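Protocol step 4 of 5: obtain the predicted structure for the target chain.
Materials: sequence only (see below). No template structures provided, no constraints applied. The aim of this step is simply to have a reference model before the mutagenesis design in step 5. Sequence pasted as it appears in the construct record:
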Amino acid sequence: MTRHEIEAFVGHYIRGWNNHDVEALTAFYDDNAILVSPVFGELRGRDAIELSYRRFFAEWPNFSTQLVRLCQIRN
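Step 4 output (structure tokens):
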């Protein structure tokens, strides 16, 4: 990915979190994805991941985040 593509990806992801847009966030995952969450444990599949976002936003309705710095990775 180019830096521009990474910035667009991260921007989309953060907007999803700040808008509590479960559909936008869930779109990042494959049907067979496995996500290990410190809050919800191991989640298997897009449906489980979607449910975790819904539960998260229900529990923390005022949650928001921001990007402070996007680091450059050097090879």
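Step 4 remarks: The mean pLDDT is 92. The two ends are 14 Å apart (CA to CA).
Proceed to step 5.
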